[in-house]
Amino acid sequence: xxxxxxxxELKQSGYQSRSIKEELRQNLIQKLQAKEKVFEGILGFDDxxxxxxxxxxxxxxxILLLGLRGQAKTRIARLLVNLLDExxxxxxxxxxxxxxxxxxxxxxxxMIAEHGDxxxxxxxxxxxxxVEKLATPDVSVADLIGDVDPIKAAxxxxxxxxxxxxxxxxxxxxxxxxFVINELPDLQPRIxxxxxNILQEGDIQIRGFKLxxxxxxxxxxxxxxxxxxxxxxxITPLKDRIESQILTHYPKTIEIARQITKQxxxxxxxxxxxxxxxxxxxxxxxxxxxxARDSEYxxxxxxxxxxxxxxxxxxxxxxxxRRMLVNSETSAKARITDFWGVVPAITGKVELVYxxxxxxxxGVAVNLIGKAIKKSFLAHFPNPDKLxxxxxxxxxxxxxxxxSGGNEVELLNDCSEKDFRKALDGVAGLRKLxxxxxxxxxxxxxxxMELVLHGLAEFNIVNKDVxxxxxxxxxxxxxxxxxxxxxxxxxx
Length: 492
Known about the structure:
Layout: H1 7-13, H2 20-33, H3 49-58, E1 63-66, H4 73-79, E2 87-91, H5 106-115, E3 121-125, E4 130-134, H6 141-144, E5 146-148, H7 150-156, E6 166-168, H8 170-173, E7 177-182, H9 189-193, H10 196-200, E8 217-223, H11 236-241, E9 244-247, H12 254-264, H13 269-274, E10 275-276, H14 279-294, H15 307-326, E11 332-333, H16 343-347, H17 354-359, H18 361-380, H19 384-388, H20 397-404, E12 408-412, H21 417-425, H22 430-438, H23 446-458, E13 462-466, E14 470-475, H24 476-491
Parallel strand pairs: 1-8, 1-9, 4-7, 7-8, 10-11
Antiparallel strand pairs: 2-3, 5-6, 12-14, 13-14
Helix pairs in contact: 12-14, 12-15, 14-15, 14-18, 18-23, 22-23
């Protein structure tokens, strides 16, 4: 079809024009009937968000995607392009992508009047039919709708009353396209008003011109919930004109969150081949985000983006890679101690409330990791607090006795795999605990052995000292005695 070059050839081909909303609708119907995946790469929305979007398209609605940051709103909007026809004919050289069979601009109508069936026809790919604008307070009506262009008036020697002096904005130039406005509440109210006509009547008004352009546009807006932002709001009359409002959400399960993180994390081939991240640590990383969304230190209205775990995963792998290079190793496995390298990915991704500000970004990040470790520990081992009440025998008895004997273990951030395993193997009863409770053995036991140490520290069974380049575990009572000795020395 896209080898057609003139209006006459297009008419002879039997081509029929259809609106963009009808085009999206018919192509969606075909995909649904063929059982094809419509939104490739969007995870966790199969039973919630995506069916709502499909219903909106079938209803030929404009769409508002409402949700907190990092919920794939823009990604979904961009994937709508795949529901457009691959190629679309336009009047050659027209500014507004005029339909050769139904032109709307004066320029295109004049060309057809002059050339008739010899009017040139061009074809544009569906990727060219997507326009995206980030709403900012400085966006003007001229940017979106258009304005008089004095330079054009002077160069063409036209009066300002001639509509040919108009410079069209992004909206008219999106004719027969998908137009996305991100962060709609950031658009000033008076600018939002300029969208009323196009959404309700399908036309625009520019200055004082008696101009009616029956534009054909699929609008998609994205926004944070109004109550969650101090930057602005969507004015009620505009929201009333957007037919479908769809609420997005964060992943509801750890497993879906893991899939998203691994899909989106950008790793090199070398990193993927040489570095292993155990399932335990992948789950632990996602748990950090889940804990952050429930944390008293973090503003729940701001949200915790999926980018936290994506950046965290990349940092975790890079931390392992650096350690591998320092020790001249060819492969390496991630450890819980490597999470010290994840902290920078957390501190920049959360908005703290007053209590969090008092704690400090680093303190909040460490607190979140500690809570995630505690939950992961309880998912695999008995609760030490219940054991203290005598409800069951103490599986940690041998480990407690080992630390009570004055022993301690130090896990250096950059220690080799050999030294790391030697340190863990040196803790009496540690491997036996893991193997008896989890039925794992050999190399697979080491991540869980490390988890036990960090978990017991979270329950104050052993003391964990966090130093610049190491984690040191020792008996908590011995640590208290050391503090008392220090105080006595200081008093003397």
